[in-house]
Amino acid sequence: MPEGKVVFAKPEALEATSTHYCPGCSHGIVHRLIAEVIDELGIREKTVGIAPVGCAVLAYHYFDLDMAEAAHGRAPAVATGIKRVMPETVVFTYQGDGDLAAIGTAEIVHAANRGENITVIFVNNAVFGMTGGQMAPTTLPGQVTTSTPTGRDVKVAGYPLKVAELLAQTTGAAYVVRRTVTQPKYIRSCKKAIKIAFQTQLAGLGFSLVEILSTCSTNWGMSPIEALKWLEDNMIPYYPLGDYKVIDEVKALE
Amino acid sequence: MAKVLMKGNEAIAEAAIRAGCDGYFGYPITPQTELLEYMSKRMPELGRAFVQGESEIASINMVLGAAAAGKRAMTSSSSPGISLKQEGISYLAGNELPAVIVNIMRGGPGLGNVQPTQSDYFQATKGGGHGDYFPIVLAPSSVQEAMDLTILAFELADKYRNPAMILGDGCIGQIMEPVELPEVDTKPPAKPWALTGCKGRKKNVIRSLYLLAGPLEARNIILQKKYREIEAHEQRHAEFLLDGAEIVIVAYGTAGRVAQTAITKARDEGIPVGLFRPITLYPYPKKALSALIDTAKVFLVLEMSAGQMVEDVQLVAKGGVPVEFKGWLGGRVPAPTEVIEKIREMADKYVRSAQAS
User: Fold this and answer.
1) This prediction's pTM
2) N or C: which end of chain A has fewer CB within 10 A?
């Protein structure tokens, strides 16, 4: 008998449970990538995660990690409190675009600018998911949501916020990139970025953030496949994938 | 032990350090800023965490993080800043996380002024944020007491896994008095619930979300049981010349301190007046106050507000003794002569008229 070899298994950092996420939602992929990275880095037992308010509020049911729940937008402040009193732990926040880019702009900008040694996974799906599809700061011009029924009018509602570009301007940030998870090649690239973000923290180099363009087929009113195409055709042109800030010490990690 | 001269705000900071505060997170606001400044110097010297947050909201959420990590954490502010912290205080209560919050009250509503008031009593003692909860509220009336109560606040917060608040006013924060520095032997209890990374155990989760009514009701029942226990065991107050007092002044903090001066003079005039000074505002010292209903002819409530604690005194009195009130607004601290005048008025109405009839 040839010896069996495990080529694919559930990451230890992930619970053996089904999630409440809708079919076609990107959260499941992103959760798995984070869990794989935590396993590969061997840091599960010294990691603390912060769940946001939004669709991922129940993330603590899906990660097998110590986790806290933060008030809407406050995850970077909660992470700061944990990291400052326990610098030996690895602390990450998992935040959506309503959480991070609307109500939580003060907390994320200042955490980045302090060079807070935490990792932020920022899921941008251009909509408030949990409350049922209202306009987010990241909603595209003309995009129809339940609170922009005729499409986002930038003269009234302003322009979509480019978070990675914005935070790359802060002196304290060490690693700020944008990725997506619509195709296997993008997923591999996204996982690599998440790993570098955690390695940035492990090396004590400062603030790291991976913005991940994601689908919300339910609130976009599309099939999962249509949603993937809509993201690539509409979101990537406005939110180009790429590395927005990578300090030399982080480049040396790669 | 030799006494040292300290400002109230600095004394609270020093007491927190002696109580083993591991992390301080704050934002400047008058009249409490010296507390933040003191911590900014001392905490790094001791290898402990100090962060000046970008807002009061961020600061209280940093406190929440440090508390979730099982460490002793503290923030301080003044009235408008405390309004901003209410979100985080509600989450601390819902998550059952111990933390100490200092409110050195100033005038309101709105931006108000930086003079001492007691107009945040309702906010502090009736919950303050959303949901059914109570922070433990301690009210010092001297710099020494501010130090002692700060240490107690850390102990009670840990004991009950609940936020505890020091409710001082601008006068307590700014006044300088000689204090004896407390030698503290206080160690936090074991915190097996803390988020430290799940090495060698199952994961810990700290949360306040319970999506279904049944589980959230069960959660609230647990919290309410805890509050009943706090109410049963932690009522505290101080007394001054209550023996034979027919006029019982009820006042806390700076108002209590001014009342004490006035009472000494009124006693010289032969007026039977004494002071009941609540130290815990939540839990309110109902048991001890209600014991005075039979001997008092009137409860006179003095507050540097339009009348907030007076409602708790009325609830204790239950009509068994009349409750009178005098308040000072807008940051005006009463002069003892104003209080004596009110005491004389009470004596004419409730003591001398009774003697005449």
Assistant:
1) 0.97
2) N
